[in-house]
Amino acid sequence: MFFRESNKYGELKLDALIRFEELIASKLPTNYRDYLIEHNGGKPCPSDFIISSGGDSSSIHHMKGIHNGPSYFSLIDSYLMYKGRMPSVLIPICDDPFGNLICISLKGKYRDKIFYWGHESEVEEGKQPYWGNIVEIYNDFNSFLDNLFENIDPNETIIERIYRTRDSESLIKLLDEGLDIESEDEFGRTLIENAAISAINSFIEILFARGAKLRHSYNYAVRNAEFFEEHKETVNLIQRLEQ
User: Fold this and answer.
1) Closest Cα to residue 133, out of 121, 146, 141, 151?
2) Please, what sign has the CA dihedral across residues 162, 95, 11, 239?
3) Across 147-161, average pLDDT
4) Digit-coded pLDDT (tens) for 79-105
5) DSSP 93
6) Which alpha helices (DSSP H) does the chain contain, by range?
7) Which of 90, 142, 139 is nearest to 118 (CA)?
8) Torsions phi, psi for 156 (to 5 deg)
9) 3-class DSSP state for residue 184?
10) N or C, which terminus of the chain has less Cβ within 10 Å?
């Protein structure tokens, strides 16, 4: 397993870790604490996980860290946002693409255990948080990481896999082998336009440096930024490239 964008917003300082543990009134479980010290928000690859014995699965969208990066990547902001919306022994450590949370337990008989918090069945506002929308999925953080997998669609193309995994090296290799940088998908969108839609800024920079035309990239990025905060960085990047 490797971690994409490890320490993207800076390495974790010990005093910042201690202040967060004071905020939550608990020392973090050892496995998760070690992850923060080493990767501080880096996203594991692969990133799919099983939710239930029935085979339901999801994938990690944002891993949280202790830093001054965007709020959707911030462990502190997520803790404060969901405080009172889930049992006090839980803190959210990452989310999936649908707004559900993966949490770790801090205290008691459930300490270290990993839980899945489903937002669609969240308790009504104003009522005490409960366990009805929460499922235990792993015994500890390392077990969670060890059981991550890649849910491969047999119909997935090479390009689709590269974009899903954000594999810059494979994209560069295809370009070096002669991939048409202005090739279009079935919807008429180019490589750089799809990178803008998915907010893969590293791909945008690679493709633009190799001569790709931005075309409608800015419009796609702006449209998605209305719903997803992280796409604002993509809007800013494309604006700079257009100058």
Assistant:
1) 121
2) positive
3) 86
4) 999 998 899 999 999 999 888 999 999
5) E
6) 14-24, 30-38, 75-82, 141-146, 158-165, 168-176, 191-197, 201-209, 217-225, 231-242
7) 90
8) -70, 135
9) strand
10) C
